[in-house]
Amino acid sequence: MAVFVANESGVTDFDEVTLAALARFVLDTMKVNPLAELSVMLVEIDAMTDLHVRYMAEEGPTDVLAFPQDEAFEPSWSESPEEDPTTLLGDVVLCPEVARRQAAQAGHGMERELHILCTHGILHLLGYDHAEPEEEREMWKLQNSLLASWDTAAGTGAS
Question: Where does Zn(2+) bind?
């Protein structure tokens, strides 16, 4: 499972290695093809605002955007991964400045918020959405479960 993290935000008070490990954990837990590749980009607020306007037609910055690459992506993989071609899952774009504000409002640290947002973005790449109330309940439940499992596996608590 290849996870590439590119920090173009200028923000450095979080652990990029841990963020990549979280992403791999989520992908593994969701039984994504082990040959899949994921890009996680962290961008400054102006870049996120531009992406939000350009791709979502919504003004202002947002916290996370997900850009799937392979439309035919299947979240499960065969027992013989060598039979599965490498899959470009997509890009998750995070904005640490927005994450910092949201973290303060939620009463936890920015790194925790980035973990929440990264998990959220990956779920979008896997086809989950929250446009309808039932979809939202399912996605949030799964997101919370994945983060709780990560906390246990990584030996961390929500911070």
Answer: 120, 124, 130
Tell me the residue range of the domain where 38 lies.
Answer: 2-154
- Pairwise CA distance, residues 138 & 150, whole Å: 18
Q: How many domains does the chain have?
A: 1
CB 90 within 8 A of CB 100: no
Cα–chain-centroid distance for residue 84? 23
Q: Is 52 annotated as a binding residue?
A: no
CATH number at residue 149: 3.40.390.30
CA 81 from chain center: how many Å? 23
Distance CA 157, CA 159 (A): 6
State the DSSP H helix or E strand holding residue 42, giving kind and residue range, or none if neither: strand 37-42
Token pair 């959405």 is found at 129
Q: Is 53 within a domain? A: yes
pTM above 0.85, yes or no: yes
Residue 130, marked binder: yes
Distance CA 97, CA 14 (A): 12
pLDDT digits (tens), the chain, 159 positions: 899 999 999 999 999 999 999 999 999 999 998 889 999 999 999 999 999 999 999 999 999 999 998 654 455 445 555 555 667 899 999 999 999 999 999 999 999 999 999 999 999 999 999 999 999 999 999 999 999 999 999 987 665
